[in-house]
Amino acid sequence: MTKQQFLIGAATAGGQVEGNNIHSDVYAQEYMKTGGYKEPSGDAADHYHTYREDIRMMHEAGLNAYRFSFEWARIEPEKGAFDEAEMNHYLDMIHACREYDIEPVVTLLHFVCPKWLISEGGWEADTTPAYFERYARYVAEHLKDEHVPYIVTINEANMGTLIAGYLEKIMKHTDGAGLQIGMDLEGMAAREELAKKENLEVFGVENAAVFTSPRTPHGDEIVCKAHQAAVRAIHEILPGTKCGLSLSVRDLQYTEKGKENADKDWEKDFLHYLPYMQEDDFFGVQTYTRAIFDENGEQDPAPGAEVTQMGYEYYPLCTEHVLRRVNESFKKDLLITENGIATDNDERRADYIRTAVEGLKRCKDDGIPIRGYMYWSMIDNWEWQSGYSMQFGVMSLDRETQAHTPKPSLAVLGGMRKLFEEE
What we know:
Elements: E1 7-11, H1 14-17, H2 25-30, H3 47-60, E2 65-69, H4 72-75, H5 84-99, E3 103-109, H6 115-119, H7 128-142, E4 150-154, H8 159-171, H9 185-202, H10 217-237, E5 242-244, E6 246-248, E7 251-254, H11 259-269, E8 282-286, E9 290-294, E10 297-298, H12 318-329, E11 333-338, H13 346-365, E12 370-376, E13 395-398, E14 403-406, H14 408-415, H15 418-421
Parallel strand pairs: 1-2, 1-12, 2-3, 3-4, 4-5, 6-8, 7-9, 8-11, 11-12
Antiparallel strand pairs: 9-10, 13-14
Helix pairs in contact: 7-10, 12-13, 13-14
């Protein structure tokens, strides 16, 4: 990768596109009554088998980067037992990227973990950072000859605190007795007991601390320590590879009396993590929309505002705004590791991409060290609890035939490289 090459690519997560990650915690939860998933992932987009063809289509559309995840549950399906064949599978994905002049951006953990890790206490256990470091070292040793430019250690390290904050926000909608209006307390208690029973049967623990569980402050510290341990291991083994984490951050705006609430959110979602990023080489920005705060907290989108299938506001300028704010505190390389829109209107997707990337160009022209943009996502896929109902992809998925078909927006995405090659 030359210093002048700006990365324009797409992103995926193995848990959403590969299918049949049978040794993972998420795969187990997909089939639990209390797992929270609308439908199981099944074969997903079968990217485990179609990756070479998918990478070829990205290349033909003009993309020069692909962010994808190595799946810990495949590589270490049992505690301490690594699967060399699965590691070779991911090395072949890197080789396919090289074959098609695509720069691989690797993520070590994108939400999905080995089932055994949860049985060991998951993301609330003091043992987890050491387990994650061992996994990172194993992967790094196998990447010595691959010249991977960027490794994201942990995708959206703040996800557990975001979920905890979301649940807290819901609970604040209470009546005078302090109970959520319409809340079925008996039903909630029964579901909680069922969840404990299922967790014991599946994981051997009553409370399954998966990566996307609401996180305690201790759990948040565990995530941060795991990240730091992985960074040190990667720096030791792969001194030429840049590594960092990614966080989910929004463009936080506010009314005249809302600044204090917006600042609290920025502290929680970004500034809080800076002390753990001092050894990082880059930061992965994941942003999709804006949030507006007043003196009462976060507002809902304005009446009549365009919203995506996910329910949040269509606001592609979030990329530029968030980058500028992040750069005030973090002066190293920046990557947009996720940004996109769930919609069945591909013209609006193309418009979103154009506006977002043009904003990045303005940032780069102003000297902000932005190095690339990874659109989410490469293909319509299994969107976790939402199942297959969300259409983020610049490729479509026919679930009956497993055909992957480029949408016009894929070529629009690839065409954005010209903005940066004219310099």
